[in-house]
Amino acid sequence: MAGRINDDDVKAVRDAVPIDAVVAEYLQLRPGGGGNLKGLCPFHDEKSPSFHVSPSKGLFHCFGCQEGGDTLAFVMKMEHLSFSEAVERLAAQAGITLRYEQGGYTPGRQAGERTRLLEAHRAAARFYAEKLASPEAEIGRTFLHERGFDQAAAEHFGVGYAPAGWDHLTRYLRGAGFSDKELLLAGLAQDGRRGPIDRFRGRLMWPIRDITGEVVGFGARRLREDDNGPKYLNTPETPIYRKSQVLYGIDLAKRDIANNNTAVVVEGYTDVMACHLAGVTTAIATCGTAFGGEHVKILRRLLMDSSASHRAGEVVFTFDGDAAGQKAALRAFEDDQKFAAYTFIAVSPGGMDPCDLRVAQGDEAVRELVEARAPLYEFAVRSLVNRHNLETAEGRSAALEHAAPLVAQIKDAAIRHEYAVRLAGLVGIPDERFVLRRVAQLAPWSRQRGERNGAARQGGPQQGGARHGGAWDPQHAAQPAAAPSFGQPPGGPALNLRNPAHLGERELLKLALQFPELVSPAFDAYGEDEFTAPPYAMVRRLIMDAGGVASADPSYLGRVSEAAPDDAVRVLVNELAVEPLQVGRKRQREMDSYAGSRLVQVRLAAVNRRVQQLESDARRAEAQSGNTTAADVRQELWTLNQYARALRERGVAALYAV
């Protein structure tokens, strides 16, 4: 049984690795106000950024899907790790040696499955890289040299060589403490007649890394004529490798993709190498599969590709100019509609890929290839039109019917109109209005407009949301799409915590969690009954149980969260601890004033509710003959009204006059 990681070591890991640095490995973050950062959520597909990170609190929260937590929770959710595996991963990153209780730590026995598979791939990558210098690997070094890659380039990309024998890597990894079961599960070995044998033999090897830089698989290039296998052989699907979710070179390109707001998609490992060495450091490639929806999600998060970005980003696809390349470009057009960024295609003269182009014409030619890109719309439309004989009426009609549905898919109305006009010219139909009408008939956006307007009149899609920048934005909704129900009966109405009536309570709780010093000590005198929304009253109780705002210290937020009775309340605490206040950046004096106004607002609302209740009690007592309590109630009413007047006039000072 695995030992439990020492609590002090877990805390040391949390403190040592900033949450914004970890999250930035997966998506681009931009200032979000109040010292927070924001980006596109990695846990659900969204048009506008609703994912917030609070570096000062060490927390993240998505206001769209309600995912949230600390640094460890983020790594667990992103990488599908257990708690121990997440601690181990961040500890290795921070250089912290972990201590294990209940019998100590036995390397290779207590590490989780994912951690073991990553360790095996790390060791395999070192093994292959070392073998590239062996006499047997001369053929591999020659292959690299002929394509313009020297030793430094091979080392930069971790290129290696797999020996031609049956079990060189298998024996090496066994000696390093890995079991046959682990090697088979990792895809590094496969079953042979007498036990596991190496999956890759006599091939040039490229380590495939995830966005954080961990080796999760390999791409292997055939070198010898007697190798009857495919030209490229990739790692099979494993617990850590999903080819539809991996982009080769993303670990090297991610920062420049985010900084330049541009990504260049090429077709192979050598093309990525050639582009990077030529200065196009935003190049990435798929691994043995077509560019698809999961790859789009990775790039969108790095590009901050949102409807609010005014399509500032660019995605450039490079394909061979042959029929296969054109087919790939048309397939990419289908994914274009998933981007907000502009998409382009770059096809070099003669149809050379970036690697061949660099060998033939040098680095400058590769850079010029990307700079001379053409809009993907234009390339796709021309490719379809050129398949037909435009000298005949039948050919022109067929070309229109073939290309019009493609133009109709374009979401941007202005661009769709422009390309419809251009299509009329390409096909040779003088009546532009006829082509425009045909495209409009085929456009899904036009057919769905009535449905969307009907939904808008009824308050938007079922998940809720507000129309914002051409997309349904959960962050601007009156109620979160997946707000916790807090014990509401199944199928019953969830409490609208963003109702304006509760805004003051929400803001005050955010202040108590994010800036406790601004509302201390007054907040600690507030009762649960001053918070009309039951979930907010629960959070007030948790703060009290954690010692109140006056006891706020580095562990304060953790104490509040740990006291939560269930996950729904814990999510709310995390949300309130991360959500920006309803103010911009303010100087300390202005923040003090804002905190005071919220203290007064919540207290005054509670006093007014009590006044209304007492007024009702007094009238009932006065209507009943012989009832002697009316005078006492009226006295209490007078006192409360005086207090309410003082709150309105003197504000926070009146809070301490009770």
UniProtKB/TrEMBL annotation:
InterPro entries: DNA_primase_core_N_sf, DNA_primase_DnaB-bd, DNA_primase_DnaG, DNA_primase_DnaG_DnaB-bd_dom, DNA_primase_Znf_CHC2, DnaG_bac, DNAG_N, DnaG_primase. Belongs to the DnaG primase family. CDD domains: TOPRIM_DnaG_primases. Residues 469-488 have a biased composition (Low complexity). RNA polymerase that catalyzes the synthesis of short RNA molecules used as primers for DNA polymerase during DNA replication. Residues 261-349 form the Toprim domain. It catalyses: ssDNA + n NTP = ssDNA/pppN(pN)n-1 hybrid + (n-1) diphosphate. It comes from Streptomyces sedi. One of its GO terms (biological process) is DNA replication, synthesis of primer. The gene is dnaG. Gene3D superfamilies: 3.40.1360.10, DNA primase, catalytic core, N-terminal domain, DnaG, RNA polymerase domain, helical bundle, Zinc finger, CHC2-type domain. Monomer. Interacts with DnaB. A zinc finger (CHC2-type) spans 41-65. Keywords: DNA replication, DNA-binding, DNA-directed RNA polymerase, Magnesium, Metal-binding, Nucleotidyltransferase, Primosome, Transcription, Transferase, Zinc, Zinc-finger. Pfam families: DnaB_bind (PF10410), DnaG_DnaB_bind (PF08278), DNAG_N (PF08275), Toprim_4 (PF13662), Zn_ribbon_DnaG (PF01807). It comes from the Bacteria. This is DNA primase. PROSITE patterns: TOPRIM. SUPFAM superfamilies: DNA primase core, Zinc beta-ribbon. One of its GO terms (molecular function) is zinc ion binding. Contains an N-terminal zinc-binding domain, a central core domain that contains the primase activity, and a C-terminal DnaB-binding domain.
